[in-house]
Amino acid sequence: MKETPTEGREFWRWQEYHRVLSDKSWKNKDIITAGVDVGSVGSKAAIMIDGEVYSWAVMRTGSNSPDSAKKVFDWALEGTGLKPNDIKYTVGTGYGRVNVPMANKAITEIACHAKGANYIWGPSVRTILDVGGQDIKAIHCDETGRVTSFLMNDKCAAGTGRGMEVFADLLQIPIEEIGKVSLSIDEEPAPVSCTCVAFAKTEAIGLLRKGWTKEKVLAAYTRAMAIRMANLVNRVGLEREFVVTGGQSKNTGIVSRVENILGVKTLPMPNWRESGLDPMVAGAAGAALLAKTLYQKSQGN
Amino acid sequence: MITAGIDMGIQTIKVVILKDGEVAARGKAFSGFEPAKAAEQAFEQALKDAKASRAEVSQVLATGSGMDMATNVDGTVSMMGADAKAAVYLFPSARTVIDIGAEEARAVKCDDKGIMMDFVLNERCAAGAGTFIEAMARALEVKLEEMGPLALKAERASPINATCVIFGESDVVTLIHRQEAKPEIARAVFDAMADRVSSMVHRLGITPDVVLVGGVAKDVGFVESLRRKLGVNLLIPENPEYAGALGAALLAASRVKGAQK
Amino acid sequence: MTQCPKKALEMVTEFIDFEDKTVAAVSELHRKKIRYTCSACKPEENKAPCVLACTQGAIRCVWKSL
User: Fold this and answer.
1) Angle of helix A161-171 relative to helix B165-177, nearest 10 degrees?
2) Residue B141 C-alpha, separation from nearest chain C C-alpha, in angstroms
3) Closest to A156 (Cβ–Cβ): which among B163, B177, B178?
4) C-alpha dihedral (C29, C34, C39, C41), degrees to nearest 10
5) What ipTM was predicted for this assembly?
6) Which of 3.30.1360.40, 3.30.420.40, 3.30.70.640, 1.10.1200.10 is the CATH number of B94-236?
7) Does A271 fall in a domain?
8) Of A291, B35, B93, B157, which sits most exposed with the smallest number of CB within 10 A?
9) How much is the pLDDT for A212?
10) What are B139-173's pLDDT values in tens digits?
11) Whether the Cβ atoms of residue A61 and residue A42 lie closer than 8 Å to each other
12) Which among A156, A199, A209 has CB closest to B33?
C-alpha cells in the first residue's frame, strides 16, 4: 500500500492512499472498467474487473480538476500492470465530472453513490448518508441501487468534510483522529449552538477559554453536525438499511452520533482494506459498475 | 429629556445618548467575552461626552442580539423596531431599511412613523454579514478597510462560492494561486454579499426610499455592489453602525412621553 | 418552464436508468437561491404557475424551516 506521508503540523490534511488487491488478476478477463469521482475536496478512482473492485486510489483534488482526474486514475492503475488502454469503459462522476478527460460518460454522483452503496453492502440498503468535502446528501434507493429520491445541501460547510477540517485545524487534532477523540469524553456535552462553521469557531474558542477540554469542544461540535445530518436523513425519509459513505464514513464520532440521534444502527463498515469495499470510494465504485453495464450494452449484450 | 439606547451587537456594543431629540453622544466598545461589562464602559464614556449623569437619563433601552445580557436597563426592544425608528428619524422618506451587521443581516419595512410593519432576517450564517468580508480580506491578505477601494478598481468579478465563508475562502486561495488579480476577487466578494442581501430584500418587497445601516454600510465596495444589484438609490446616514442604538434611544423617548400623558 | 416568471427552469439532459433523458431542472444560477427566487409566487399555497403547469404533478413546494 502506497501512502503519501502527512506533513508535520497540517492537522487538516488527511492521508491519501492507494491499494491494489494482490489476490486478483486481470489476465484473460474482458470487462475491465474504471470509475473516477472528482469531488471538490477529494478525488477517487476505482478499477473493476468483471464488476469487482481490484484497485483504488484516494487523493486530494488540486485546483485543476482535469489534472486531478488524470492523477488519481493513473495512481489507481499503478502496481496493477494495467495501461489506460486496457480499460474498456470509464465513467466520470462528482462535481468535476465534466472534466474527466478519460471518461466515456459522465453520470451524476447521486446515481453513482447509490450504486456503490448497493455494491458495498448489498440489496438491503435503502438510505444513504453521503458526507462529501463540500456537501451532505441523503439518498433513497431501491434494491438494485437505483435512486428513488434525494436531498442535498451544498450551500453550507456545516457537517461537510471542509467543516471538519476547519475544526481539526482549530483544535490542533489530526483529522484522522477526530472521531476517536470526540468519543473520548465521559459525558456527552450539549451541541454547539451555531451550526455555521465560521461562528462555531468563535463559540469553540469561547468554550476553550471557559476551561472546556479539546475533547469536549470537539464532541459538542460533532454532535451539532450529526444533528444536522440526521435532520437531512429524516427529511428524505429514513428506511432501513442505513449506511454512511464518503469521507465521514470513517469518522466514528459522526457515525455513532447519527445512529444515536436517528435510533438506527448503520450496516457495519466492511473490511475495506482487504475486500476493496471502501465506503470512501462508493462513488467511484458505483461509477465503475455503471461503466460495466454501459460497456456490455455497447457490445450488444 | 435624556434617553439612551444600547445596541448589544455580537461584535461591538454601540451606545447613543439622546438629549431633547438630538444625538448628544455616541459610545462604542468591543463585546468580547463579557458584553455586559463592555456595555457599561461604553455607556459611561458616552455619558461623559454628553456631560450627563446616569441619574439624568430617564430611560435606557437595550437592543441587538445580546440585549438580554444588558444590565441596568429599563427594557429591551427588537432590532427591527429600532432600525425602523432610526431610519425614519434620519430620513423621513424611508420605508425600507437594510441593516448589515457583523453576524446578522435584516431588512425591515416601515411606515412613515417609523413603525416596523414586516421584516426578513438572514439565518445565523456568516456569509450574509460582515464576517464574510473580514474572512475574505484575511484570505486575500488585505486590510479590511482596503477591501472597498480595491473592489472599486475591478472591471468584473471573479467567480467565487457565494454561499459560504468556508467555501469562499477555499475559492479565494485557489484564485490567488491562479494569479487572479485581487481587485477582481474583492469585487466578487461584495457582489456575492450584495446578491444574498438583495435576494433577502426582494422577499420583503422593495418600497422606496431604501436606507442602508449597520457597520457594513461604511464599506464603499459593498455599497457599490448593492446599489448595482438592487438598482435603487441607497440612503446612508453618517455613523450607520449606530442606527440600532439610536432607534432604541428614540423608542425610549417615546415611552417616556407616552408615560407622561 | 415558460410559466415561471423568473425563468428559473430549463431543459437539461440527465442520464437516468441507462438512458439520456430530457428533463426540466432548476438552472444552476438559481439552484442555491431558489427560496428567494420562488418567494414571489407564494409557493406555500401550492398554486404556483410551475406547479399548475406540470401535467405530471412532478413539482412540489415544501416551505418550512429546519
Assistant:
1) 90
2) 28
3) B163
4) 70
5) 0.81
6) 3.30.420.40
7) no
8) B93
9) 93
10) 899 999 999 999 999 988 887 877 888 888 888 88
11) yes
12) A209
DSSP string, A121-151: H-TT--EEEEE-SS-EEEEEE-TTS-EEEEE
CB-CB: which of A107, A146, A297 is closest to C15?
A107
Among A162, A194, A209, the residue with its CB nearest the CB of B166 is: A162
Q: Name the nearest CA neighbour of A137 among A120, A155, A122, A119.
A: A155
| Chain C partners within 8 Å of A105 (Cβ) | 15
Give the Å distances, CA to CA, from A231 to A152, A197, A259.
12, 17, 12
- What letter represents residue A212's amino acid? W
Spatial CB neighbours of C62, under 8 Å, sequence gap ≥ 6: none
Partner chains of B (3+ C-beta pairs under 8 Å): A, C
In a domain, A151, yes or no: yes
State the nearest Cα–Cα gap between A26 and chain B, in angstroms. Answer: 39
Q: Is residue C15 within 8 angstroms of chain A, CB to CB?
A: yes
Same domain, A89 and A74: yes
Q: What is the CATH number of the domain that holds A13?
A: 3.30.420.40
Within 10 A of A102 (CB to CB), how many other CB atoms are there?
A: 16
Q: B72 — contact with chain A (CB < 8 Å)?
A: no
pLDDT per residue over A126-179, tens digit each?
999 999 999 999 999 999 999 999 999 988 899 899 999 999 999 999 999 999
Q: What is chain B's mean pLDDT, rounded? A: 91
Q: H/E element holding B255?
A: helix B243-260
CA A244 to chain B, closest CA, distance in angstroms equals 23
- The β-bridge relationship of strands B116-121 and B210-213 is unpaired
Structural domain of A11: 2-121+280-298
| Chain A interface includes C66 (CB < 8 A) | yes
B178 at A interface, C-beta within 8 A? yes
| Cα A146 from Cα A225, distance rounded (Å) | 28
Does residue A4 surpass a pLDDT of 60? no
pLDDT tens string A216-268: 999 999 999 999 999 999 999 999 999 999 989 999 999 999 999 999 999 99
Are A107 and A81 in a shared domain? yes
Segment B34-56 mean pLDDT: 92
Which residues on chain B are in Cβ contact (under 8 Å) with A63?
174, 177-178
Are A161 and A38 within one domain?
A: no
CA distance A271 to chain B (A): 33
Chain A, chain B: beta-carbon pairs less than 8 Å apart = 37
Count of domains in chain A? 2
- Rounded Cα distance between A25 and A79, Å, is 12
Is A273 inside any structural domain?
no
A157/B126 CB distance under 8 A: no
**Res. A2 pLDDT band, cuts 50 70 90:** very low
Which one has a higher pLDDT value, C24 or A103? A103
Domain boundaries, chain B: 1-91+239-261, 94-236
Whether the CB-CB separation of A204 and A217 falls below 8 Å is answered with yes
Mean pLDDT of B77-88: 96
Residues of chain C neighbouring B200 (CB-CB closer than 8 A) = 36
Indicate whether A11 belongs to any domain.
yes
Cβ–Cβ of A196/B174 closer than 8 Å? no
Q: What is the pTM of this model?
A: 0.85
User: Cα distance from A177 to chain C (closest Cα, Å)?
Assistant: 30
Task: Determine the distance in angstroms separating the CA of B202 from the nearest CA of chain C, rounded to an integer.
Answer: 7
Judged by CB atoms closer than 8 Å, whether chains meet at A156 and B125 is answered as yes
A114 and A179 assigned to the same domain: no
Span B1-91+239-261 CATH architecture: 2-Layer Sandwich (3.30)
Tell me whether residues B202 and C36 touch, CB distance under 8 A. Answer: yes
